[in-house]
Amino acid sequence: MTGPDRYKLIKNIIQHKKSIFVIVLFLLFIGGGQRLSAADGRQGTPLKIADTIIVAKDGSGNFTSIQKAIESAKSYSLQPVVVFIKKGIYEEQISVPAWNPHIRLIGEGPGETIIRFGSYFGAVDKGRNSTFYTATMRIEAEDVVCRHLTIENTAGPVGQAIALSVSADKCLIEDCRLAGNQDTFFATGSYTRVYLKDCEVSGTTDFLFGDATVFLSRCSLLCKADSYIVAASTAKGRSNGFVLDSCTIRAAPGVKHVFLGRPWRPYAQTVYLNTLMGDFIAPLGWDNWRSKENESTAYYAEYNSKQMTGGSPVDLSKRAAWAHSLQPQEAEKYTPGNILGSWIHQPL
Questions:
Q1: C-beta of residue 249 within 8 angstroms of C-beta of residue 223
Q2: What's 78's domain CATH number?
Q3: Long-range pairs for 57-61 at CB < 8 Å and ≥24 separation?
Q4: How many domains does the chain have?
């Protein structure tokens, strides 16, 4: 039985108002001898399900708070712990600490299970680093999966306000909606790799940013202001920063001039492949963040960018002279497996 099938069955049982005891027995029955999701750090060694915790606003689960459910999980579990979050709006700030790896946060759909909080730079007393304390959800543990959720920062257009922050390796975000304004999604860490798959991300300025290696596949981006999409801060010597493949970039009404990216730090790397975009993308494409020197250190590239309407190729001749237009053989290396590693091929 696959992971998605397992979650559908859990959902069906819950909807038919079976007891938590029956759910646990059922999971033990179908989980016996079966393998769930990722590797535990040893190549090719699968993990078995350890536990399932139900979160429900109406009190029908184990907890009404997602954070309380995470805190109840065994520290340094060697097996995945599923936190199944029933439909509802959860207004809380979530942290998955380093001692809780292998957590799977599973909702009932981005339109059904909504996690939101309204912290922002001006509301946090942490000096110049206040931005990094604003996240609605902060993932600091390895091998965490988020599925079928909305994670939103509701502070509004008041400056830096993170919806999701990831600072640990091997994190999968699938079928999720990440909503905010400035700095919606942040990924950091020299060894952090994050896979965003079939997600929606909205924001105004630098709403994808950080120094981690991040691969976005088949994601939809909504630009809510005339500003910048990706602000990578890739460290010198790193092979990859942000890679966006087969994505769609849309604009909110009134938005007319958006840059694909700018270098938050000198060695920023951002690559777009097979992406649909509208005329609101600035012909220049890339901004040097007021530093001519960044043009010789940052790496920005595109391959097979197409117009939203009609699907005709985007005219890259007007792009910044220091950006790259990839050839097919160069673009071939940008696959999720090549960029992120073999862990993404495990049944997560």
A1: yes
A2: 2.160.20.10
A3: 57/86, 57/88, 57/89, 57/90, 58/86, 58/88, 60/14, 60/17, 60/86, 61/20, 61/86
A4: 1
Question: pTM value?
Answer: 0.88
In a domain, 210, yes or no: yes
Mean confidence (pLDDT) of the chain: 90
Please indicate, yes or no, if residue 32 is contained in any of the structural domains: no
d(CA 295, CA 287): 9
Tokens 């959902």 locate to 11
Instruction: Report phi then psi at 270, rounded to 5.
Output: -145, 130
Domain that holds residue 317: 53-337
Average pLDDT over residues 248-268: 98
23 falls within a domain: no
Question: Could you tell me which of 175, 155, 13, 184 has the C-alpha nearest to residue 104?
Answer: 175
* pLDDT score recorded for residue 49: 81
Q: Does residue 8 register a pLDDT over 80?
A: no
The sign one gets for the Cα dihedral 6, 11, 17, 21 is: positive
CA angle 259, 316, 279 (to 5 degrees): 50
Q: Which SS3 state, helix, strand or coil, does residue 155 take?
A: coil
Q: Cα separation of 117 and 180, whole Å? A: 10
- Is 7 among the domain residues? no
Residue 26 has pLDDT above 60, yes or no: no
Rg (CA), the chain: 20
Does the pLDDT at position 172 exceed 70? yes
Q: Convert the pLDDT of each residue in 307-344 to its tens digit.
A: 999 999 999 999 999 999 999 999 999 999 999 999 99
In this structure, what token pair is assigned to residue 118?
A: 């309204």
Active site residues per annotation: 183, 206
